[in-house]
Amino acid sequence: MERIDKILDDMKELLNKKNQDYGNSFHDSYVEFGIIASVVRLSDKFNRLKSLTKGNHPHFEGVEDTLKDIIGYCTLTLNELQP
After folding, report:
1. Where are the beta strands (DSSP E) in the chain?
2. How many Å apart are CA 69 and CA 41, to the nearest integer?
3. Which of 35, 65, 36 minimizes the C-alpha distance to 48?
4. Best CA proximity match to 67, nearest among 2, 14, 3
5. What are the tens digits of pLDDT across the range 1-14?
6. Which of 3, 7, 36, 40 has the fewest other C-beta atoms within 10 Å?
7. How far apart (Å, rounded) are the C-alpha atoms in residues 20 and 77?
8. Cα–Cα dist 2/25, whole Å
9. What are the residues whose beta carbons fall under 8 Å from the beta carbon of 10, sequence distance 6 or more?
């Protein structure tokens, strides 16, 4: 469980850093488009993951980065769903 705790701690730090860099862009999109904003962003990330598993190698983002993005968007969506 220590590795899972580390992953989640790292994700919390990453989300906070990205929020500082990008502001509330996901929240703004969610307010404008609703849950479809999450579906679109997650779809993009899953497409990238599929491409990576087929052997396509991007210049700067790999499987781990893509999985972190997916976790991040799921977390942001769960946050938006809170009353």
Report:
1. none
2. 9
3. 65
4. 14
5. 899 999 999 999 99
6. 3
7. 18
8. 32
9. none
